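My current task is to audit a protein record that another person submitted. What it holds is a sequence and that sequence's fold in token form. Thanks in advance; the entry in question is below.
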Amino acid sequence: MRVGVVALQGDVAEHADALRAAGAEVVLVRTPEALERVQALVIPGGESTTLGALMARCGLDQAVRRRVGEGMPVFGTCAGLILLAKRAAGGEPPLLGLMDVAVERNAYGRQRESFEDELYCPAVDPNPFRVAFIRAPVITWVGPGVEVLARHEGLPVLVRQGRLLGATFHPEITGHCGVHRYFCTQVAS
């Protein structure tokens, strides 16, 4: 499977490595033309306002909306989830508005409040695995068509809506590629 990673800002290399470990061929996506070469897409963590503005500037936002309308799977982590959301509080970046969730940006606090923890998600791995919450958003509402795959302290942190997958955490920086494998085999297949 050929999976693109939006390569405008954020954890691009880390996602590319996790996708390769999960068995995918990786394409770095910076233009709508590059998006046409992939079967699925990852929107990485980073700074959501900057990432959204850069995507809009090069027309990638409209191209992603069109491709999702055609059935392309997308996985958004942290800032990527914020961009996928229908609503965002705490300063609203240019949203793609594709996933029926509402998020609150930077809900866990500033950079120094970032943390790692064990996450239990049987859909991804029968064993708990380590993830990082870095200036993470909180999912404050999920629509009726959204499945909550994992929670952390009662809050949804991994959600799926059809061929869209969203995580409030960063699975790409802790060395566990299970969420990427789940995306490639369950969501994007």
